[in-house]
Amino acid sequence: MPNSKAKAKPHAKAARAQWAEHARAELKRAGNRSGGARSAVLELIARQDCCLTAQQIFDSLRADGRDVGIASIYRALELLTRMGLLRRVELADAGGYEPSLPGGEHHHHIVCDRCGKVSAFEDAALELAIDRLAGRLEYEVGEHEVVLRGACGDCRK
């Protein structure tokens, strides 16, 4: 399971449920099936508070008794990312995947380069700074990702 310390907010849970329905509709509209591995990946990611790696998805599905191959998981992740339904976050040793929510709700990540622990965070001051920077540079920022790296408290000891 993910090693994030993020706690889901009630509206975040509803947003992920809406995302899952939106993703299924987009798959159908594009002529893709939503069964099998795609459905299993969608269902699992929609229940998470933070990103998961392909290996974490594989391990979690296997633990739930789902017989989904790792290659099928990678294909599902690739398709969902290409369609803009998932976003990939670069973590310590692998990429993590989380919903690209239609309303733009998001959080950022801090990654321990030593143990791989990932923690999600939100920061209103950071969001304001990004908005001010975009204005100063005369850009309209559609989306952004902040990943901070370093050593967690346990690894610094």
In a few lines, what is going on in this structure?
The chain is an alpha+beta fold.
Query: What is the approximate shape?
Result: globular
| N- to C-terminal distance | 25 Å
Strand order of the largest sheet: 1-3-2
Q: Which segments are poorly predicted (pLDDT under 50) over 5 or more consecutive residues? A: 1-8
Order of helices and strands: HHEHHEEEEHEH
Question: Can you offer a commentary on this structure?
Answer:
This protein is an alpha+beta fold. The protein contains 6 helices and 6 strands, in the order ααβααββββαβα. It has a 3-stranded antiparallel sheet with strand order 1-3-2. Helix 3 packs across helix 4. The protein is globular, with a radius of gyration of 16 Å.
Essential attributes:
157 residues; alpha+beta; 3-stranded antiparallel β-sheet; 3-stranded mixed β-sheet; 6 helices; globular; disordered N terminus
Q: Layout of SSEs?
A:
Elements lengths: L9 H20 L6 H11 L5 E2 H10 L6 H13 L3 E5 L4 E5 L8 E5 L5 E4 L2 H13 L10 E4 L2 H4 L1
Parallel strand pairs: 4-6
Antiparallel strand pairs: 1-3, 2-3, 4-5
